[in-house]
Structures are given as C-alpha cells and as structure tokens.
Write a structure and sequence with these properties.
The structure is a single chain. With about 280 residues, the chain is of the alpha+beta class. It contains seven helices and 18 strands. A hairpin with a 6-residue loop joins strand 1 and strand 2. It is globular, with a radius of gyration of 23 Å. The structure holds manganese (II) ion (MN). Manganese (II) ion binds next to loops.
Length: about 280
C-alpha cells in the first residue's frame, strides 16, 4: 500500500477485507445499496481524519480562506486559528458596566476568526443594533500552543502583539446578559474584530505597561495603560490554556479599559497601543 502519510501523522491502515469491500461492493451496488454506502463512508472518514489526501477531496463548495494578519516589517502573513477575548479585565471598565471587579474575576468569550477587519478597512454598521460600541484592546498573537501552560513560561508562547477593537452590539449584549444567554449576538457578528498588523515580540519585547488609547473623530475616548489589566498577559495565557488547548494562530483580545462608547456611521476610529501599533477603521 502506498504510504501517503506525512511524518508524525497517525497512519490509517485498511485491513484486507475492508479494502476488498471498498473495491468489490460498488460493482454489485444494485443488490447491496446500504452496505456500499456504509463502507464507502467509513473509508472516506478514515482518509479524511489524517488529512493526507487533499488532492482527492471533493469539496461540496470552496472551503473558506484562512483569515490572516500582516506581520510588521515582513511580507509574512499570520494565519488566525481562534479569537479569544477577555471580559472585564480592567477594573474601571468593570465598574462602568455595573460590576464589582473584586467579586467577579475576568472571564472569556470567543469571536469567529472570519470577523477580522484589517487596519485601514471599514466597519459596516451592523444590523439589529442601535448601540454599537468600540472597545480598544491589546491583542496577543500566539506563536506556540499548549495546554496547562505555567505563568512563568507563558510569554514563550507569544509571537507578537497588535492593537485591536472588540466591536460590540451593546444593546444585544445587554439583553443577553439579562436573560443569562450567550453573548454571540452582541460580540461575534461580522466585522466585529478589527485588528492591526502584528508586531513580533522579537522587535517590541513583551510589554507589561504602555499607553492604550482610542480617538473617535480625533477626540480621545479611552485612555489607559495595559498595566491596569486585572490579569496580565502571562496570567491570561496560563488560565486560558487550562480551559482550552491553545495553538499557534490563536489571538487573545485582552480586554478594554473604561470609556467605551457608541459609534455612528461616518465615524473614524484610530486606536493605539504604545510601542506596539495602531488600528484605523472607518464606520460606514
Ligand atoms: Mn472587550
């Protein structure tokens, strides 16, 4: 049998009876319709699990392209796997949202990777909301995955950092909160995760402090420092790796400081993280 398995992948072996069935049964399909279907499905599943035959795969429709972010100073693209977001990671923001940061620790939610908008792009004002907010955040881009990562080794997993916006349909999020429902309608809608280019940590270092601010139409709306995070970057990575298996390509939006507010069509948002980068998005 031709070896089509890449190094390190688990090899799937068909034993002889299964191979014979796969070859023989289609020729007597009229008598054994059900059995033919069953064995062909088993065979295809076994092949697809080791992803060793992409050329033989017939997608029903074109698979989506991988969302990517540019890497500053290079022509390389960073392929995005997942987007994790930290909720209420700045005490002043937790308070402005009506929560006590001493009683409720930060927590996590996710956005879909295909909601990324590159800096310089546009944010179409979303449907079903009349109160859409900016949330300016430091974004961590992982270069290495892991499970149960310790706080002291967490920064070894960081590839770089970016400036990002966690756009939020505040009215829908508020309604979901009241009913104890999930936040996706408020957080994970299309275009909800604008992100600037990634600055490699090899250039910026791993900042534990630095001004973070956003201007809307030239007026400063949020102005804080990343040293105000309740959980810093290593603590966030360590905790998150205990509840999910992290991998390279994962982004972490690390939470927003006080001063969140509404935007309208025609607004220009310019956000900055000192020593890291910026994000420029116009609302259309
Ligand atoms: Mn946020």
């Amino acid at each position: 049998m031709k070896n089509i398995i890449k190094p390190g992948e688990q090899q799937v072996k068909f034993d002889l009876p299964v191979l014979l069935l796969l070859i023989f049964l289609p020729s007597c399909a009229s008598e054994f319709n059900i059995e033919v279907d069953l064995y062909i499905v088993i065979g295809l599943n076994s092949i697809s699990q080791n992803e060793s035959c992409p050329s033989s795969m017939n997608y029903l429709f074109p698979p989506p392209s991988v969302p990517t972010l540019p890497v500053k100073g290079t022509d390389m693209l960073y392929p995005v796997h997942r987007i994790y977001c930290v909720g209420r990671n700045y005490a002043a923001h937790a308070r402005e949202m009506g929560h006590d940061p001493d009683r409720e620790p930060p927590f996590f939610f996710q956005k879909n990777p295909d909601t990324i908008v590159l800096s310089g792009g546009t944010f179409p004002y979303p449907d079903k909301s009349e109160n859409v907010h900016y949330e300016m955040e430091l974004v961590v881009a992982l270069g290495k995955g892991g499970k149960d990562i310790s706080v002291v080794s967490a920064l070894e997993h960081v590839f770089g950092y970016a400036a990002g916006l966690d756009m939020t349909r505040r009215d829908l999020q508020g309604a979901a909160k009241k009913m104890g429902r999930p936040w996706e309608v408020g957080k994970a809608f299309e275009y909800s995760a604008p992100c600037g280019e990634i600055t490699p940590a090899s250039n910026s270092g791993h900042p534990s402090s630095g001004r973070l601010w956003i201007e809307v139409n030239g007026e400063v709306r949020q102005d804080s420092n990343i040293d105000q995070m309740i959980w810093n970057v290593p603590e966030t990575i360590s905790y998150l790796s205990g509840v999910f298996t992290l991998r390279e390509g994962d982004l972490i939006y690390t939470g927003t400081p006080a001063g969140v507010g509404a935007i309208n069509r025609g607004d220009q948002m310019n956000g900055y993280v000192e020593g890291i980068g910026e994000i420029s998005i116009s609302v259309v």
